[in-house]
Write a structure and sequence with these properties.
The chain is mainly beta. The chain has one domain (3-93). The chain is 8% helix and 20% strand. The chain has one helix and six strands, in the order ββββββα. It has one helix spanning 99-107; strands spanning 22-26, 32-34, 55-57, 60-62, 68-70, 76-80. A two-stranded antiparallel sheet has the order 1-6. A two-stranded antiparallel sheet has the order 2-5. Strands 3-4 form a two-stranded antiparallel ribbon. The longest helix has 9 residues, at 99-107. Bound molecules: FE2/S2 (inorganic) cluster. FE2/S2 (inorganic) cluster (FES) binds at residues 20-21, 81-83, 85-86, 92-96.
Length: 109
């Protein structure tokens, strides 16, 4: 599949799924997959929607986004980012408060 055949515009990603974080209760030793593209319908986690972004280049499959794996060492409650603009993924760093992030959210369906 070429880039132009994907149902999404790569230049607009990652999508701002929500302009606020979500508290998640995690179990020690369990691996969680945090969505990096913003397209998952089970935010903040990955539902493999990013695989629709795959395209072939020089005979090689390119995936511009992959989920980020996180495995806590102890049971914990943390705030996962849903705007996908954090500089400390998968955790919220307050980036969702930036005007540019809120504007991007308002522009995307
Ligand atoms: S929700 Fe993304 S930085 Fe807060």
């Amino acid at each position: 599949m070429s880039e132009s055949q994907t149902p999404y515009n790569l230049n607009e990603l990652p999508k701002v799924a929500q302009c606020f974080p979500v508290e998640v209760h995690l179990k020690a030793g369990k691996t969680y997959s945090w969505c990096t593209c913003g397209l998952s319908r089970v935010q903040p986690f990955c539902d493999s929607e990013h695989k629709k972004l795959g395209y072939e280049e020089n005979g090689e499959l390119k995936l511009p986004f992959r989920s980020l794996k996180y495995t806590p060492e102890k049971d914990e409650s943390v705030w996962f980012c849903q705007c996908k603009q954090t500089k400390n993924p998968p955790f919220c760093d307050g980036s969702h408060n930036k005007e540019a992030v809120q504007a991007k959210h308002a522009q995307t369906p």
